[in-house]
Amino acid sequence: MQVPQPPARPHTVTIELLTSLPSTTRTQCCHKELPNRRSGGVGPNTAPEAQYRRADELTVALQQPAYRFVAPAALATRHAFTSQRRLAATQSMNERDAGTEILAKQRLSRPVSPHLSIYRPQITWYLSILNRITGITLSGGFYIFGAAYLVAPYVGWHLESAVLAAAFAKWPAILKIGTKALVALPFTFHSFNGIRHLFWDVGSMMTNKQVNQTGWTVVGLTGVASLLIALL
């Protein structure tokens, strides 16, 4: 024997119909006619206030986006596989080249850092430079003359000592003195300054005062020795 089912309530049928309608139609229906529980019929503006509020809440809930009801793990998974795009800023080559050219010109006018002009000149600078220059001059001149002396018999040159002395004797006195001084100057300076470096090698005469004193001593001895050799 089948038990008869009780008839559905009017407001239940209305809510079920609302859920199957589009959002625009649901909004219009909820604000026009709702069932009247007291009379059992349907009439305009006869439902209780609570039923209107319930219908409005249902309409708003049905209009929410679906992703708001998704679990946080699902949202994290969806964002993990979503690629993000970032627009790159572009710049024309002409503008970049112009800016680079300006920077290059500015760099050319900048001083070297640290610039040598901020230091007070010291005698040790000049003696160190002269020691290298005289060393290169003496060694280079020795190798050049030695190579020329070796090939002289094969090319017909006469670089014997007697020939050189006879040719030098014909020069004027002022030219002789100047030439001998020019040759003696790098030789004497490099010799005296080499002795100074030997003292440094044994750890002696290395204070600032002693370095300056020995430097001026080398300069004085170089001048005197070069002059004496030139007058011989």
Automatic annotation (TrEMBL):
One of its GO biological process terms is: tricarboxylic acid cycle
Q: Does the keyword Lyase apply?
A: no
CDD domains the record matches: SQR_TypeC_SdhC (cd03499)
Q: Which GO terms describe its molecular function?
A: electron transfer activity; metal ion binding
InterPro entries found in the cross-reference section: SQR/QFR_C/D (IPR034804), Succ_DH_cyt_bsu_CS (IPR018495), Succ_DH_cytb556 (IPR014314), SuccDH_FuR_B_TM-su (IPR000701)
- What keywords are annotated for this sequence in UniProt? Heme, Iron, Membrane, Metal-binding, Transmembrane, Transmembrane helix
Annotated Gene Ontology cellular component terms: membrane; mitochondrion
Write down the membrane topology. Answer: Multi-pass membrane protein
Domain of life, per UniProt, equals Eukaryota
Record's signal peptide:
none
Protein name as catalogued? Cytochrome b subunit of succinate dehydrogenase, Sdh3p
Annotated TM spans:
123-145, 181-199, 211-231
Instruction: Name where it's found.
Output: Membrane
